[in-house]
Fold Threonine synthase.
Amino acid sequence: MRYFSLNNHQHFSNFENAVVRGLAPDKGLYFPEKIEKLPASFFEELPKLTNLEIGYQSIRQFVGDEIPEEDLKKIISKTLDFEFPVVPVENGISSLELFHGPTLAFKDVGARFMAGCLGYFSQKSNLGNITVLVATSGDTGGAVANGFLGVEGVEVVILYPKGKVSDLQEKQLTTLGQNITALEVDGVFDDCQAMVKQAFLDETITTHRKLTSANSINVARWLPQMFYYFIAAKQIQEKPVFAVPSGNFGNICAGLMARELGLPVAHFVAANNVNNTVVDFMDSGKYQPKPSTATISNAMDVGDPSNFVRILQLFGNEHQALKKDFSAYSFSDEDTRKTIREVFQKENYILDPHGAVGYLGLQQYLKETASEAPGIFLETAHPVKFLDTVEEEIQTKVPVPESVRSLFDKKKKSLQISSKYEDLKRFLLDEN
Ligand SMILES: *Cc1c(COP(=O)(O)O)cnc(C)c1O
């Protein structure tokens, strides 16, 4: 399978190179050259297919012959070894729970798939050691650390802002050891991100180490998110409306890709917090990035969503075509809090702040269009990850899942550095 750069449609790469590089040399996002619909038989058999079979059939064309069937299936089966239930919340509205993975957020799927692919290529092609360098404001770091743990030939370096991630998130980053190093930066998330960006541009470092990133621009993190939509569809009878709490728009873009492969979907709703760049674009047709604003659904505090160009590409850059299948809404923290409270009181269902925004988007779309289609919002994180906000609204303890209980007893291991780039540089050049 060939991928082209969205900055230059004449620049091609194979899957391996797209995964190892992340971005094209011209800084464009990679996009598949051809998208082939899945056969009608796939959709007829869908309710009977295993998740592994669904994953394999849907992603196979994007990997091509670069990973043999047996190895690709091994990677997918590790990626999907937990549940993705569609849980009814109220009449006409269900939650697709994506938080049953090891770090309790949907990013586990993308991170594990990418780790599997990178591990495979590192061994097969003798790439030597690869360093995955990421800055995290919370969820990404945990999922990446967990996904890459013990993958041979890959070292992971995660920068996180000291005192700015939740206790649970910090434990997820700092207790694994092995090939995972957590750098605790005396600064804020923007400092971490700036340091990482500078490292990618620093030739003293890139000649010393092979660096790659693990954010959702990487095709191996983006594409496996299609699996959720097929796995949801196998559990329901009718064509659904999907509402997706969106930040960088990788997840919803993968849903649109699943539809491109033939999955019947009535409509897609992008649900945003006050970071509403895409909502404005849908109204005006003009894309104007903004600085991000901090909210309680902080994984969606993005003012310039990196995957939106892929969505435009899927619709041939036609604003009207996009509008037919896709809507976007924006909600305040106050709306979000009220929803967490009310849905718990009325339906006894605990939403996290991101899922609550998804629920709101779905509700608004169904109301506005008087649609009869079953509505599914994606619940992207377990409420325990946002304990303070959620417990404040529901006035009850959130049950802590068994899988994370032991984390609280483990010892944190991090390397403290300042927010000066030279500190990171010394570490990456092994000068410590
Ligand atoms: C990352 C994240 C999102 C946003 O997903 P995108 O693919 O960036 O749109 C939503 N909810 C949670 C909990 C997340 O961690």
Summary: Residues 83-103+221-398 form a domain with the Rossmann fold fold (CATH 3.40.50.1100).
